[in-house]
Amino acid sequence: MRRHLTICLTCLLLVLSLSFVLSFSSVLAQGYGNDESVIRWQYRPEEPIIQMGFGGEILPTGAQNATKSIRIPGLENRIIPGEPVVPFRTARILIPLGEEIQDVKVLPGEKKNLGKILIEPGQDPLPISFSGNYTFTPLNETTYGSMEPYPKDVYSVIGVQEKQGYKILYINLYPIMYIPKTKDTYYFGTFDLEVKTAPAETLDRGLFRGLPDDSVLIERMVDNPGEVATYSEDIVPMGSSPLLDGNYDYVIITNLALKNAPGPYNFTTLVDWKNSKGVAATVVTVEDIYATYPGADDQQKIRGFIKDAYLNNGITYVLLGGDADGSHLGDDSWDNIVPARGLWAWDYEASPPNIPSDLYYACLDGNFDYNGNGVYGEPEDGPGGGEVDLMAEVYVGRAPIDSYAEMANFVRKTIAYESTTSDPYLKEIWMVGEYLGFGGDSDWGGNSMDEIKDGSGASGYDTKGFPDDYHKSTLYGRDREWDKMELMEIINGNIHTINHLGHANVGSAMKMNIDDVGRLNNDKYFFGYSQGCYAGSFDNRDPDSIYSPSDCVLEHFVTEPHGAFAFIGNSRFGWGRRSNTDGPSQRYDRQFWDAVFAEGIENIGRALQDAKEDNIGSVDRTSDGNVMRFCYYEINLLGDPETSFHQPFTADHNIEITEMELPSYTKPDKPVQAKVIVKNKGLEDEQNVAVQLLEGGTVEDSEAIADLPSGASAEVSLSWSESVEGMYSLEAYAVPTEGEEYADDNRQERSIEIFKNRSLILLVDDDEDADYETYYEKALSANGYGYLKVDEPPSQSELLSFDCVIWITGRDFTTALTREDQANLAAYLDAGGSLFLSGQDLGYNIQDTDFYSDYLQVEYVKDSTGVYTLEGVSGDPISDGMTVGISGGDGANSQYWPSEILPITAYATEIFYYQNDGCAAVRVDTGTYKVVYLAFGFEAINKSSDRDEIIRRVVSELTSPAETFASLSKTDEVAASQGTRFESLDGPILPGDVGGPLEGVDFYVDLTFEDINLKFEKLDPKFEEINPEFEDTGPEFEDMEPGFGGVK
Questions:
Q1: Cis peptide bond prior to 45, omega within 30° of 0
Q2: Contact at 8 Å (CB) between 839 and 939?
């Protein structure tokens, strides 16, 4: 399908009403006709999990049923106080460069009835400092008495966001449809999304700069990464900021006095340190910025410089090198060195609404005040009056300093942490939780901290916690009383991280006040994250809108001689939730650590922004969405954004088996390869690392890795075979190196089963969690075929253990048959394998690959035939005499885009065609391998009898039994192979053209063979004798009795 390389205008999305096909259109969607392109994406949520909810205390008088919660693994919850809580999935669709959205369609799949459920109502978010009476949020009786579906639509449009010039459409999908009055609850198992685009009228590259790192980031973020290729590097900017000479990764913005501060620890020291690490760094003063860049105020001028330096000089990280006090502190410090931008704060912030937010300097699209009313960051303050920019171009942290001494402390601690990579203190992690009093699970902060400590799937979505390599400790009021002296002693003992949930204010956090922070004496510095209220209020404003004469407590943690090197915290209220741990601040906290440990984002500034962007789907104009926006704005990093969070200390010598891949099945005497990945987790390089494969304690194979540097991995392949049927356990073992003390991770085990004399069929369930495999399983069972089903793409060695592979792709058109899968299948087929492949959109996804043309030996013709009746080909062993339907009946009824294909070699033969239309399926037989490929879904065949018969014919065509049958005719020349059985003699076999009975007739059969045991058995009694004559042969046949046979 066509893609166009011009620049996209931002368009206003108008949501239309819902039928079964839902759409919205841009106001610019006119006149594009033939130039339109379509992006398609398919989503299948997991099955819902229904659990007991809060109970009768939140129900109206007289209600008899307790509420229940509905969760879908991997999905967050849409929470509006008093409304039914439903899960949702945020789709991120990248719009091709130079195109604008014309239309969006969302097609939900089959609606499944989950029964009658009273879904729990959403609970109010509460400031963590809340100390009022605890009550549940009651259900909204108007909503719960309505016959209207909830949510009203199966999707909602968040809008188009831009990140580094890439335009991303955000859409929330709602798999649950609820009729509140009757409690009827339904679940959609699939969603098919179409986004229609057309070329924009003007060229506007926005903030696209064409850097490879930018494209890699976007590919990881969106659901259709293939569209990244439409963003051309031919239109990248070529200018430069007047304040910079050359390209930089990192810039510090500070005032002239701090730039010229005396050493040894100043910003020049920090820049030199960054440059020594390979991070190109420099310092720019606010005085130069104010004199060079236009703007209505200093914040606009600073943001204008950052945008210029990002676009033209390649910067990624910005350290704001100075405080932003809201009042004069009255000492020898400066007050407002790098001013903060105050953003809109919803109803909970005092007047004027003002959240100091360094997000303003990170997200560079638009001006954050589209309506010009002087209130920045309102929901409609984005470009064109749409959503404000929430996606960062650069990653920002703040050094909240206003004196030479504070600068020296900040720089010294930052460099000390960054240069410490092998200290045992890096293993020490502490979770700190206090009493909140919100009821239920949210009474205690420790319950939420456990989700971060260990990782969690609570509240539907999954986040990874701290790996077990860390020493994870807790200080929870839930478990026992603790005081600030105990925590100060823990910090003074040198720890790596504190994550905190509890009450706080401008001057205190974790029960410690500003003076306590000044008394710390730790010489190893920690990283902190607190959900407490106002602890990070770096403008020093308190809940009563009074500006304190002292810096906030988190500033003190990072600017005092000891304490922390960086701290993430709230500049205004932290937010929890009544009765459960799914509080707004908790979502950002969990996603931060998930960014570090699951997504591999080590830089703390990047990780914080990733946590925010993972929550964009929850930032809308509902009351809860406004609280999520509040958190999005107020969570700031007081620290260096480029600093990487360290993994735990490792020993000098530590070898680990990180992966062992072994087929689950094989045949007797057939060698298999165990692929073993060995990693050197130690600090020292290693040589001659011995890796063994053991069975029953006996070394079966071994290999030595000559050189294995610290941090590196190597792969070895170890061979094994066995002649006797049974189940075997094989162990990969890395022999400990000299000085290696911990060896528990030096081994892994896998099981393998030996099957004798039977065909092995592998069923690969690769249909994105649909249930289409059931149609194949029933057909296989109906024919008595044994099979093994797997729900993950098998490895090459796994495939090689099977005679026949059946691979289901269902309706997946984005991830089916990855490049790795194709390479594994190619190796399997080259080794003589047989493959049955089915899927209506497989060709759409891989049509341009070598595997599609060279192995399936077809050409992709078109995406959707619109024809749902198929005709077989006369005489074909698979389709002869068959006419099948692929719509309705007892099939999956799932064929929206059955594809047309075309055989392109003599080895590929058409076996089904669409009625009065093109080719629908082929079989391929090269003499080396066999393939049957259906360009539609087998699961949609609408009669089980047809499915059973086609499976019988396909498997018969693709598999070779233990003995191969051949028929001989008069004077046929047969190329026999080992195990070939000549089952029948097609008669009449007579001299000349004479017909008649076989008795007493001489006939001749020429057999060509080499090194073959030839056996005739169970001959018809009418054959009195066989007098074989062999050319250049050894022994004659043994004498044979009528009805028996002989062996040569």
A1: no
A2: no
Contacts with 950 (C-beta within 8 Å, 6 or more apart), sequence order = 779, 878, 879, 882, 884, 938, 941
Any residues with CB less than 8 A from the CB of 656 and at least 6 apart, and which? Answer: 678, 679, 681, 734, 745, 746
Phi, psi at residue 358, to the nearest 5°? -80, 0
Higher pLDDT, 906 or 1041: 906
Given this structure, which CATH class describes domain 250-385?
alpha beta
pLDDT digits (tens, 9 = 90+) for 970-980: 334 444 443 34
Architecture of domain 761-958: 3-Layer(aba) Sandwich (3.40)
Tokens matching residue 952: 């019988």
The answer to whether 142 touches 58, Cβ cutoff 8 Å, is no
For the record, the structure tokens of 782 come out as 């109906």
> Helices in 695-853 by DSSP H: which ranges?
773-782, 796-799, 819-830, 842-846, 850
Q: Per CATH, which fold does 13-235 belong to?
A: Immunoglobulin-like (2.60.40)
Q: Please say whether the beta carbons of 200 and 181 come within 8 A.
A: no
| Strand partners of residue 729 | 751
Residues 6+ apart with CB under 8 A from 187: 47, 48, 111, 112, 114, 175, 176, 177
Residue 334 pLDDT level (bands cut at 50, 70, 90): low
Residues 496 and 427: beta-carbon distance below 8 Å? yes
The answer to whether the 655-754 and 761-958 domains have the same CATH topology is: no
Residues 6+ positions from 981 with CB-CB distance below 8 Å: 963, 964, 965, 966, 1015
Close Cβ partners of 765 (under 8 Å, ≥ 6 residues apart): 773, 789, 790, 791, 808
Task: Give domain 422-638's CATH number out of 3.40.50.1460, 3.40.50.1860, 3.40.50.620, 3.40.50.150.
Answer: 3.40.50.1460
- Under 8 Å between Cβ of 855 and 931: yes
Task: Label residue 1047 by pLDDT band (50, 70, 90).
Answer: very low
- Paired residues of 196 in beta bridges: 38, 103
Which top CATH class is 655-754? mainly beta
